[in-house]
Design goal:
Elements lengths: L5 H20 L24 E10 L6 E6 L4 E6 L4 E9 L4 E5 L6 E5 L3 E5 L5 H7 L23 E5 L4 E6 L14 E11 L5 E13 L5 E12 L2 E3 L6 E5 L11 E5 L2 H4 L16 E9 L1 H4 L3 E9 L2 E7 L31 E2 L14 E6 L4 E2 L5 H4 L3 H6 L17 E2 L3
Parallel strand pairs: 1-7
Antiparallel strand pairs: 1-4, 2-3, 2-5, 5-6, 8-10, 9-10, 9-20, 10-11, 11-16, 12-13, 12-15, 12-17, 13-19, 14-16, 17-18, 21-22
């Protein structure tokens, strides 16, 4: 492999990787303990540990072959075909990842680089095409078996997990639109997609796995999700036509919109064994919810993202979302901007938008719901605020996400609850 500007790049890369690793992993000491609501948080802070990246790899050859985006443990994040001399990756990743890897699965050539929006020039070995063409292709879809995740299905070729490791966690705190107790253990969800694409990376179908890790709501609420369409980077829009069709696990008669669905109307009636999993009350193995769907990529594109929300069981129009997420079309906008909520009361569902937006944030820029990618997570015990269970979150929030980005790695073990 001979990257463009080879000599200076090789000199600069180790230093760049070191600086990014230090910025992402170095932690400041936790500040003196105080109430979550006493934090002074910049109004520009988004409370998100998930970032959007667009990475373009320019190649001199290899049309029709695949190129992979990996983490440094060689776990696949995305796989893209080489089209018109390039492979373009549009992904959502944990902000804690300092380094990524691009790799040709055909030749094994790879290159590590700082995790950022970037363009990279990459030269494939001359024998790449010969290796690709010489391999068997059982289903005749032009993708050889060694690089076909579905070697016996001509309609599918690529399988991806989103997130690529662990789960997408969403934590809600009860109380919206007024201040809650900021323990963020009232509803704790873990979710992961398994997506199936055809040889051109067009999304065809998927599976979703949802885990309810902790539940401590005092009122009666249900759970819904809105599937947003990713345009590019942090820009999203809506696919209102019949884009998603659920093939198992979900009763679609519960919702009118095709892009929004209710998992269930009431947590209490859905849970087979009531539990809280927060150190108070009953404990149980988290309940799981599996569903499958097909996707019309001609309408909805190939990148989708779930917008989870709570709603009152007897008032569907009363919704609670994670920080910055817009409400669905079923919401009563008059509920917004009441109490401590500083949300706007207007929204155009017909246009695209940049995330996060001006919803579900308090006047002090505090959230009622936060999200992140993580391989495992333990909730704060009942009676402790999230910053007491995870003291390093304070510097992360008050520096606008610059310091202590890995705050979840350093809990106060006395104040978090570990499932038995």
């Amino acid at each position: 492999m001979h990257p463009t500007n080879r000599f200076p790049f090789r000199l600069l890369l180790p230093a760049l990787l070191l600086l990014l690793a230090l910025a992402g992993c170095k932690k400041d000491a936790p500040v003196a303990e105080r109430r979550f609501e006493e934090m002074t948080v910049p109004q520009s802070f988004t409370w998100s540990s998930i970032r959007n990246l667009i990475i373009t790899v320019n190649l001199d050859t290899g049309f029709g072959q695949y190129f992979d985006l990996l983490d440094t443990r060689d776990r696949r994040i995305d796989r893209q075909p080489i089209r018109e001399g390039k492979a373009v990756f549009n992904v959502r990743l944990s902000a804690e990842i300092p380094t990524l890897r691009i790799k040709s699965p055909v030749t094994g050539q790879s290159l590590d680089f700082p995790a950022d929006n970037t363009t990279i020039n990459f030269f494939l070995d001359a024998n790449a095409t010969a290796i690709w063409n010489a391999a068997a292709d059982s289903d005749g879809d032009t993708i050889p078996d060694p690089w076909d995740d579905y070697p016996n299905d001509p309609n599918l070729a690529i399988k991806l997990l989103i997130p690529h490791a662990g789960m997408h966690y969403v934590l809600f705190d009860e109380g919206w639109p007024d201040n809650g107790d900021y323990d963020f253990n009232d509803v704790v969800l873990g979710h992961q997609f398994e997506m199936s694409y055809d040889k051109n990376h067009f999304l065809k179908n998927g599976k979703g796995k949802l885990r309810l890790l902790a539940y401590g709501l005092t009122g009666e609420y249900g759970l819904g999700v809105e599937f947003l369409r990713t345009v590019a980077g942090s820009t999203f829009d809506y696919a209102f036509d019949q884009t998603i069709l659920f093939t198992s696990g979900i009763d679609t008669t519960l919702e009118k919109d095709y892009n929004t669905v209710r998992f269930f109307n009431n947590f209490n009636s859905w849970m087979t064994a009531p539990y809280q999993n927060n150190g108070v009350g009953p404990t149980a193995t988290p309940q799981e919810f599996d569903y499958t769907f097909t996707w019309n990529s001609e309408i909805g594109g190939n990148f989708i993202w779930p917008n989870f929300f709570l709603f009152k069981s007897n008032e569907r129009s009363f919704e609670v979302h994670a920080f910055g997420y817009p409400p669905t079309r079923q919401v009563n906008l008059l509920n917004l901007s009441t109490g401590s909520d500083a949300s706007i009361r207007r929204w155009n569902w017909q246009t695209n938008f940049t995330f996060p937006n001006a919803f579900y944030r308090s006047y002090k820029n505090l959230p009622w719901g936060i999200e992140f990618f993580e391989e495992s997570f333990h909730v704060a015990k009942e009676g402790f605020q999230l910053n007491q269970g995870y003291p390093y979150i304070v510097r992360w929030a008050e520096t606008g996400g610059f310091s202590n980005r890995s705050w979840r790695y350093y809990p106060d073990n006395i104040r978090i609850f570990r499932l038995p």
